[in-house]
Design a protein that fits this description.
By secondary structure, the protein is α+β, with helices and mostly antiparallel strands. The protein has one domain: Pnp Oxidase, Chain A (Roll). It is built from 4 helices and 9 strands. It has a 7-stranded antiparallel β-sheet with strand order 2-1-5-8-9-4-3. Strands 6-7 form a two-stranded antiparallel ribbon. The protein is globular and about 40 Å long.
């Protein structure tokens, strides 16, 4: 499947219901969190997905030494699991008790089993947003001195 096939459904459910961002670090720690923001596109002659994670999140800590992440999108189901993974920290609970992790096809980070759409991504770039460059209306509506870090992952597998 090409990365843009079912992109409309993927983005609809990402923004409406959420998706699971899952990562495994070099120490083998795994965590998933719920995301509702992200971008799919084409850069550096390859398909990429950009995800945003606040620095205080446990997932951000794991991303520091990870080489990949996955995005698992359920189409209208798993609302309870998305709710828990969006409100509970992996520092406090083991999320493998909330969702079932499954081996990804091409990256070290697992997927969340039972979803309808998957991106497997190799991290190519990470950075912080420069708060001085964020428009004031966006800054005021979405930030309180806790702007996101962003991670650009080359999409190496897409399936559903």
């Amino acid at each position: 499947m090409k990365f843009y096939e079912n992109l409309d459904k993927m983005m609809e459910h990402l923004t409406k219901d959420g998706a699971f961002l899952t990562v495994k670090d070099s120490d083998g720690r795994i965590n998933t969190m719920t995301i509702a923001w992200g971008f799919s596109g084409f850069i550096w002659s390859k398909p990429h997905f950009m995800t945003l994670v606040r620095p205080q999140r446990f997932t951000r800590e794991i991303l520091k030494t990870a080489d990949s992440f996955t995005v698992s999108v359920p189409f209208g189901q798993m609302k309870k699991e998305l709710g828990i993974c969006g409100t509970e920290s992996g520092r406090d609970i083991d999320k493998s008790g909330v969702v079932e992790f499954a081996k990804a096809k091409s990256v070290a980070s697992p997927i969340v089993a039972g979803c309808d759409f998957y991106y497997e991504c190799k991290i190519n770039y990470a950075d912080k947003f420069d708060n001085d460059k964020i428009p004031e209306d966006i800054f005021g509506a979405h930030y309180n001195q806790d702007w996101h870090d962003f991670f650009l992952g080359e999409i190496v597998e897409t399936y559903g």
